[in-house]
Amino acid sequence: RPHSCPRHSGARTMLPLLLLLLATAHGLDDLPTLVAPVLASSSLGGQKTASTFVLDQPRCVFTNVSKDTVIWLVVADPRAVPDFNNSVEPGGPGREFQQFLNSTFAYMTLNTTILNYPCPKNPGDITVLRVGSETRCAKDKKRPTCNGPLPGPGPYRVKFLALDGSKPVAQTAWSEPITLRTAQPSGNIPVPGSGHSAGMIALTSILSILFAILLAGLVAMLLWGSDASSGSSTFSKPEAVTVQRYNTHHVYDQPAARL
């Protein structure tokens, strides 16, 4: 009994601290959550490839942050979304692109200040981001925030996270799952206006080339036979040409008659 009051008082003192630590451990999920990223218009072309996809820039999204705030793009496997921790340092353990889908299920890339996302946008500005466009740093462990090619068709989910120094200050909601294109075997690619596969067309082309080679060989044999027959004919001896020698008479100028 004598110790019951101090224990109860201590528990009440620790409760706010535990709640604060819990919020920090979950990446400050009480951050302002803004509109989710979306894919760029399909009219631009190349919206999704086998290793990249294109997003609209977050223009006019982070309107209440300081000018030196850095905006990061988070790319995640859907399994990492529920427990994603906003407080983990970009490029730190658990956030390296080179380990994505191996020991890491989310990474951060395409960092830039809010000044590069002006609002409203200027006419003629390119306002899209291509995710997965850097190939040189894909295996460079010194570039853990590399915007490297995505390792498979996905799906992936993305969000933008605003950091003031190392402190998260705002975030967007997670996007809808994004699935990339997958390459089809060449033999299964249909040809418009034809019921034949690409493999059949390739075989036809090869046969056409072989036929052309055979025809060229036949023509060469005919020409060679013609040359051989003409070379075996006899030639008549040329007639002897007699050259007569003539002595020319020199004509000397006669002296002029004296007057």
TrEMBL record:
<dbReference type="GO" id="GO:0016020">
    <property type="term" value="C:membrane"/>
</dbReference>
<feature type="transmembrane region" description="Helical">
    <location>
        <begin position="200"/>
        <end position="224"/>
    </location>
</feature>
<keyword id="KW-0472">Membrane</keyword>
<keyword id="KW-0812">Transmembrane</keyword>
<dbReference type="InterPro" id="IPR024831">
    <property type="entry name" value="Uroplakin-3"/>
</dbReference>
<feature type="signal peptide">
    <location>
        <begin position="1"/>
        <end position="27"/>
    </location>
</feature>
<keyword id="KW-1133">Transmembrane helix</keyword>
<keyword id="KW-0732">Signal</keyword>
<protein>
    <submittedName>
        <fullName>UPK3L protein</fullName>
    </submittedName>
</protein>
